[in-house]
């Protein structure tokens, strides 16, 4: 069983990469970044059976100005049927407390990351160890509290850059094998805004009034748009695997499969990025590795967690329940789940009032006399 991930806070701002690599990353971002802050579209949903109209950010702003989420989370990991544990994760429920001396954040602010390694645990462990440096210190995270359109564009650009920084850093670290890689999914909460960036097949699912809304897309070779991109760049899909080897089309690391820096590759580290304005209808977020989603739908997971929160209001227990459910359904992978609650539900199902069982007894005349004398205070004690 994997140990609980501890918060990693590194206050050193020593650059990970030299100027040449930063310039390469900036050029890639300029050439490939899509229009920022796109609202979620139902057509982007991972599971076709769960596609439904997705909420629009602007339409929600006027209805949720007074709402502020109350952040708390829990997580659970298990090695599953595998010989080695390659998952890593991090939970920071209060960013101002952890990084307040370095950055100014709106309140509440929180950060979560899940890194599902393959080809050995080195890549996932490396990214988790340096996650604060990659995502906040070296990626030019915006230094302002005011959440406006410019700030949101800067946050998106910063997060896209973070994934590429981590990817190139893995290529340069001699302790990480070139055949080791990791998927990565991060979730950032700034006030009422939820922002999710994903490269790989981890998944983030939002519960809105009991309904599952996918906040990320699984980057798998079988996905039509990913297959098209891979084939246009000279790659191929063989039996559901990229170039017959890898079950994802986006990942950090795996430099033995990537073309030289600066050129297009079928395997990329560029994340999908989605954001949404949280409202009172949003109850929690589930972040899970592919070992969860291989055996259950997003709606199944949401329903299980929702029932658990209404019983015991414990996100960590809900994360454990999801892992146990995946094991029951015969998953074949490592398992990690993070459950982030946006409100203190405390909707526990009231237990039925226990009726005290009354038993009728027949007392003898002698016993009645003894009881009467005791009540009258005239009984002779031994």
How is this structure best described in words?
It is a single chain. The longest helix has 24 residues, at about 150-170. Helix 1 (about 20-30) packs across helix 6 and helix 9 (about 300-310) crosses helix 10. This protein is of the alpha+beta class and about 375 residues long. It has helices at about 20-30, 55-60, 95-100, 120-130, 130-135, 150-170, 225-230, 290-295, 300-310, 315-330, 365-375, and strands spanning about 70-80, 85-90, 110-120, 180-190, 195-200, 205-210, 210-215, 235-240, 240, 250-255, 270-275, 280-290, 335-340. The protein has a single domain (about 20-345), classed as PPM-type phosphatase domain (Phosphatase 2c, domain 1, 4-Layer Sandwich), CATH 3.60.40.
Structure described in brief:
By secondary structure, the protein is an alpha+beta fold. It has eleven helices and 13 strands.
Task: Give the key terms.
382 residues, alpha+beta, Phosphatase 2c, domain 1, 6-stranded antiparallel sheet, 5-stranded antiparallel sheet, 13 strands, 30% helix, disordered N terminus, manganese, PPM-type_phosphatase-like_dom, protein serine/threonine phosphatase activity, metal-binding, metal ion binding
Layout: helices, strands, pairs:
Blueprint: H1 19-32, H2 57-61, E1 72-78, E2 87-92, H3 95-99, E3 109-118, H4 122-129, H5 131-137, H6 149-172, E4 181-190, E5 193-199, E6 203-208, E7 211-214, H7 224-232, E8 237-238, E9 241-242, E10 252-253, E11 272-277, E12 282-288, H8 290-293, H9 298-312, H10 315-328, E13 335-341, H11 365-375
Antiparallel strand pairs: 1-13, 2-3, 3-4, 4-5, 4-10, 5-11, 6-7, 6-12, 8-9, 12-13
